[in-house]
Each structure stands twice: as C-alpha cells, then as structure tokens.
Amino acid sequence: MKKIILVLTLVLTTAITFAQSDKIVKHSGETVNGKVIKLEEYTVIFKYDGEDAENTISKYAIEKIVYGKTGRVEDVTEKIVVSSEEDWEKVVILEDKGYIAGLKKGEEVRGKTGLINYHTGNTGDKKAEKKLKMASAAIGCPFILMTADKATVGASSNGLGGSQAIKKGVGYKY
Fold first, then answer.
1. 3-state secondary structure the chain
2. Calpha distance 117→166 (Å, rounded)
3. What residues contact residue 119 under an 8 Å CB cut-off, 6+ apart?
4. How many CB atoms are located within 10 Å of the residue 146 CB?
5. Cβ-based neighbours of 50, under 8 Å, separated by 6 or more
6. Of 74, 110, 133, 163, which cross-links 88 as Cys (Cβ 3.0–4.6 Å)?
C-alpha cells in the first residue's frame, strides 16, 4: 500500500511540474518545453526543463508561447511564407547573428548593381537590396543575415564615375 501511495505521489508531482512548464511553439512545428526567462526585442531567453543553462531563440522562429502557470497564449510572430521570387518583398534582412537563433541556414545570396549604371548612391543601394531579397526568395528563404554591404562611388568604382552597390548575405528559413 505504501508503494502505491509513493508511486501516485511521484506521478502527481511530475504531472504538476510538467503542467507548469512553458511551451514555445516554433514555426517549423517543433515545440520546446521549458521556462521563458525574458522576452527581448528580437529574442526570447529560456531554460529547458530540468536544465539551468539559458538558451536564446529568435522571435522570428517562434509562432507562439503558451505559459504553463496561467495557460495564457502569446502570439509572437506570423510565419512568413516565401514560395517564389515574386515574394521578395516579404524577405526580412537581419543584421545581428542573435536574430537567427532557431532558424536553419540556407545558401549564400548576393545582390549588386552593374559597373556601368545610372543610379545615384541611394537608388543603387535600393536596387542591390531588391536583388538580394529576390535571390533569397528564389531559394525559399524568408530571412537574410547580412554579411557584406559595400558601395563604391566615383573613380574607385569604374572609369565613368558611376556607383556600384554590392550586398551579400546568407539565407535562413524555418
């Protein structure tokens, strides 16, 4: 009889412990059980159940958080669906490595303007950014981690005195 009571007590204690853990639901369909420590502007800091180490995940990778103690559901971000090059405007450029935590690395992408063009510095930069986003959308990546952003103007870019913008990055997906 004592063994049955002991087993029931352990089962109930375990059930209560897991019922209070937070659930982080990722856009990839994966669910992470743990304790949300802090919500920052672009990241969520959490601990896995039974662990003390703090982990960081990008808010872009998270659909919602279900808090274990209260049952409250907090929607974090909407999933960005990029199915073809025409969806290039949906692509988000990220400039900090912390913002890609929890996303899967894709291919390197690049966008640039031609050596001989009639763009000013600002319009050339926008055209290179558009090409970069189009390249990312073509491979199905809704995020780009910017790795290089270079612009040359005048005599250092070409003999005609034009400007050239070159942008490089790595595509990321859910």
1. CHHHHHHHHHHHHHHHHHHCCEEEEECCCCEEEEEEEEECCCEEEEEECCCCCEEEEEHHHEEEEECCCCCCEEECCCCCCCCCHHHHHHCEEECCHHHHCCCEEEEEEEEECCCCCCCCHHHHHHHHHHHHHHHHHHCCCCEEEEEEEEEEEHHHCCCCCCEEEEEEEEEEEC
2. 13
3. 113, 127, 162, 163, 165
4. 15
5. none
6. 133
Burial of 32: CB neighbours in 10 Å, binned 0-12, 13-18, 19+: buried
Going by pLDDT thresholds of 50, 70 and 90, the confidence category of residue 139 is very high
> Quick one: which of 61, 99, 54 has its CA closest to 80?
61
Number of residues in the chain: 174
Q: Which of 140, 25, 127 is nearest to 90 (CA)?
A: 140
Residue 157: per-residue pLDDT: 47
CA distance 127 to 50: 49
- Dihedral of the CA atoms 128, 134, 137, 141 (nearest 10)? -10
* Residue recorded with tokens 């180490």: 53
The yes-or-no verdict on residue 30 having pLDDT over 50 is yes
Residue 95 pLDDT level (bands cut at 50, 70, 90): confident
